Amino acid sequence: MKIGIDFGTSNSAAAAVVEGRVVPIRFGEAEQFRTTVYFPEVMRDPNDFALTPALEHELARLIDAAARDARAAGQERAPDALRREALRVVRRQWMEEQMRAPLTSTKLLQNAVYGDEALEAYFEENEGNLVQSPKSMLGYNLHPRARQTITGIATHILEHIRLTASRQLDTAVRTATLGRPVQFRSSIGAAGNDQALEILHTAAIAAGFDSVDFLEEPAAAAMHYHAESAQEHDTVVVDIGGGTTDVAHARVGGTQAPKIHRAWGIARGGTDIDLALSLGAYMPLFGRGSSRVPAHHYVEAAMVQDMTRQRDFRQHAYRDVDAPWGKRLQALQETGNTARLYREVERCKISLSSEAQHASALDFIERDLGVAVERARLEGAAGQYLGELTGLLEQVRADIGHDPAAVFLTGGMSRAGYLQQAVAAAFPGSTLVRGNPSFGVVHGLAWAAAGNV
Hints:
This protein is of the alpha/beta class. It has 15 helices and 16 strands. It has four domains: 2-42 and 114-217, Nucleotidyltransferase, domain 5 (2-Layer Sandwich); 50-103, no CATH class; 231-268 and 385-435, Nucleotidyltransferase, domain 5 (2-Layer Sandwich); 271-380, no CATH class. It starts with a strand and ends with a helix. Strands 1, 2, 3, 4, 8 and 9 form a six-stranded mixed β-sheet that branches. It has helices spanning 53-72, 79-104, 106-111, 116-125, 144-169, 191-206, 217-227, 270-282, 295-302, 307-315, 325-333, 337-352, 375-400, 417-426, 440-450, and strands at residues 2-7, 11-18, 21-24, 33-34, 36-39, 113-114, 129-132, 175-180, 211-216, 233-240, 245-252, 259-266, 357-361, 370-374, 406-410, 431-434. α9 (295-302) crosses α10 (307-315). A hairpin with a 6-residue loop joins β11 (245-252) and β12 (259-266). 48% of the residues lie in helices and 19% in strands. InterPro entries: ATPase_NBD (IPR043129), Hsp_70_fam (IPR013126). This is Hsp70 family protein. Keywords: ATP-binding, Nucleotide-binding.
């Protein structure tokens, strides 16, 4: 059986078409899970290399062999040079072995925890590795070791989805249609799209899939909307997710297969609002704008999806920073606290979409520390993204040359009223149809996987 998989920045889901209807894959009691995984077993960092007795033995063996070869060739090699060369070989072999382990270790997979439970387990255990939103890193310039680590993490998540689907459907799931954004978040331009797809394909095969194909997420949402539309009509599909915003112009409904005319996308979404809200409303509690701490330190702390920036933040020294900022920053560096702060930011964003104020308690940083955030702060944080969204929708309107009969709005961030208003304003002559924010894309992927549309 072939399933559809929405491997999302914030949340992931899967579904299959069984006897003509979409059947969601359930992860515990839910039909989706936060794209977060916690490994109680520590995934070793190559920077952790240290000589063990076994490695010392291998080092001595390599030095002796190199010395013999040099003597046989009539050469004299300095002992320090021989040791440096042998040490490079031992360290390289150690790194290769460590970086293979996350891809092959059944122990890591068996003990891994996913979704919101991953956060709770990480907070409780206070050790191990927590990885959030690995999708946001797929298109970035990655060192080979980092790429292998990201591939391994994606493999674990896709394996979790495949095994869960196989148990629920009582059949071995070996093929899938994966959703993909029009434009992945990238630091290397268009090459980031190719790299991201290569990583996902490699991860899927390693996760036990025999074959996978990809479908742009707004096209998948259009297929879902098509399946629910009795009358044929022209539509623009707007999918606002955590990491990307994607748009498709399509003909849907009726008895004919849907037709996707064109797709657009920007690598911006809800996580960009999270970052702006964190920097504007929460990081001033840690001295942003009031201390001499460089501004990029606060960005590093706020970007929990970026493992490199998180590591850089933990390595800064704040002992000499003025009170109270120094001690608060040191507390923020403690295991799990950037993730705790990010969760508070998410809660704040969701709350302020309907409430005038949200209060966050930050006792994990300092006793009685907290902040009350007004809705105006969220509106300010969302300003830059709203500008980019408006620009995208204006481009779409200009490219197609008319208002479609309907605009179908989906994606996790489509719940926000201010985003609904922005989309409606971009197409004043269209009927705004609000789809299922969480499952519009994955239902379309399931239909595509079944070949029914």
